[in-house]
Amino acid sequence: MTPVAGWIAGPGSALQGEVIVPGDKSVSHRAIMLGAIAEGVTRIVGFLEGEDTRATAAIFRQLGVHIEAPSDGVRIVHGVGLHGLQASQEPLDCGNAGTAMRLLTGLLAGQAFDSTLVGDASLSQRPMRRVIDPLAALGAHIDSNDGRAPLRIHGDQPLRGSHIDLVVASAQLKSAVLLAGLYADGETRVSESHPTRDYTERMLTAFGAPCEFAPGVATIRGDATLHGTEVHVPADFSSAAFFLAAATLVPGSDLVLRQVGMNPRRTGLLHVLRMMGANIVEETASVQGGEPVCDLRVRHAPLHGIEVPVELVPDMIDEFPVLFVAAACAQGTTSVRGAAELRVKESDRIAVMAAGLRTLGIRVDETPDGATIHGGKLHGGAVESHGDHRIAMAFAVAAQLADGEVSIGDVANVATSFPGFDDLARDTGFALRDA
Ligand code: S3P
User: Fold this and answer.
1) What's the CA dihedral at 407, 408, 410, 416 to 10 degrees?
2) Partner of 48 for a Cys bridge, out of 23, 32, 329, 384, CB 3.0 to 4.6 A?
């Protein structure tokens, strides 16, 4: 299938119905990784069939792990144990996936063999020193292209359990250290400046590894045995976010998002939208595979601008593109600060969102670590997503509110995290077609 180059979207009308968004990307990556180094079989249900998570599965096949895909969203991983991975002569291609590259850097640092990690053009520009340095403190030896991929990870380096203080609040870095810690002597402890998503810690525990954790700190003891298990992947809150925002913004909308993962370290956008005036009700809450899930019923509500609380930034780090759109449609101004990390995501999300919103008629004042967005009227126009999946989907939402059509370029990477977004969006009432 030829990837779609762009979309023509909007103006839209009321969104209605029920939506089930695909499985969580963070959980899907981790389930393959831990399943691969566990003893015995791991069955993953609700696996995200996205390009990022498929890249992770393909890498473990290259490292000698048998992974079956009996049906969509199901993977059976035949674990090879902590020391059972085999060297690959070929580079391991993470594609667009920062999570795959950073977590694998930690895991591969503990192997007896050398590996090379590569990525696409976007991933090859992203900072990797932040993962190399803490791993080097454990004794790892990793060469890079001046702090960027390709990464050459030298095996057979003894790793020593240590206490690592992370400067950047990042679940990817914390997870890389914990995975390397499985191969280190003694105990590895990692502290973070602000608590981030704790899926690695929760999943290590579910696989029987000696991992202890509390918000902001986690420890792992080396040389533990992981045991294969069953992993239920909840629907990805970050994918649901586009529909939460769209149904809030488009007049007349009433939409239900089914069984969305509600890990508290992921739901910052929900709090912020409610602070802005959104009407989102949580229904039928339950716990699935250790994770809280619930249905979210969203009805249109007018929004007003706010100062986004800095402490919520890590809990909504992937949701800023769509929050910028909500802010553009709100009455008054919305300011975001303490979010410099957005500049080193799949694109510079502050600059790319600001540029696109300005094209559509919105005033945005950029700062190094955020922006002030002045709510106004969105017009039609042509915007670029710079190959960033979340920017493409955020502008698809913006287009529903515009007074003319919006053409959105470079949308093929939507398939990295949300395959089928366009069909699902159309089913609920989005005006969206291939360019
Ligand atoms: C992720 C952590 C976040 C997030 C990314 C997924 C993870 O990145 O942006 O989409 O699965 O651990 P950082 O750790 O760099 O903030």
Assistant:
1) -140
2) 23
Q: Which atom of ligand 1 sits closest to the CA of residue 29?
A: 11
Which pLDDT score is estimated for 422? 98
- The reported pLDDT for the residue numbered 288 is 85
Q: State the catalytic residue, choosing from 24, 52, 236, 318.
A: 318
Residue 218 in this model has a pLDDT that exceeds 50: yes
* 200 ligand 1 Cβ < 6 A: no
pTM of the predicted model over 0.90: yes
CATH code given to domain 25-232: 3.65.10.10
**Domain coordinates in residue numbering, the chain:** 6-23+234-434, 25-232
Using a 6 Å cutoff on CB, does residue 99 contact ligand 1? yes
Catalytic residue flag (residue 318): yes
| Alpha carbon distance 208, 84 (integer Å) | 18
Q: Are 424 and 19 in contact (CB under 8 A)?
A: yes
How far is 401 from 183, CA to CA, in rounded Å? 51
d(CA 326, CA 111): 45
The CATH code that applies to domain 6-23+234-434 is 3.65.10.10
Is it true that 6-23+234-434 and 25-232 share their CATH fold? yes
Cα–ligand 1 centroid distance for 124 (angstroms):
16
Any atom of ligand 1 within 6 Å of the Cβ of 416? no
Ligand 1 atom closest to Cα of residue 169: 16
Whether 34 and 226 have beta carbons less than 8 Å apart is answered as: yes
Tens-digit pLDDT profile for residues 37-87: 999 999 999 999 999 999 999 999 999 999 999 999 999 999 999 999 999
Largest CA distance in the chain: 61
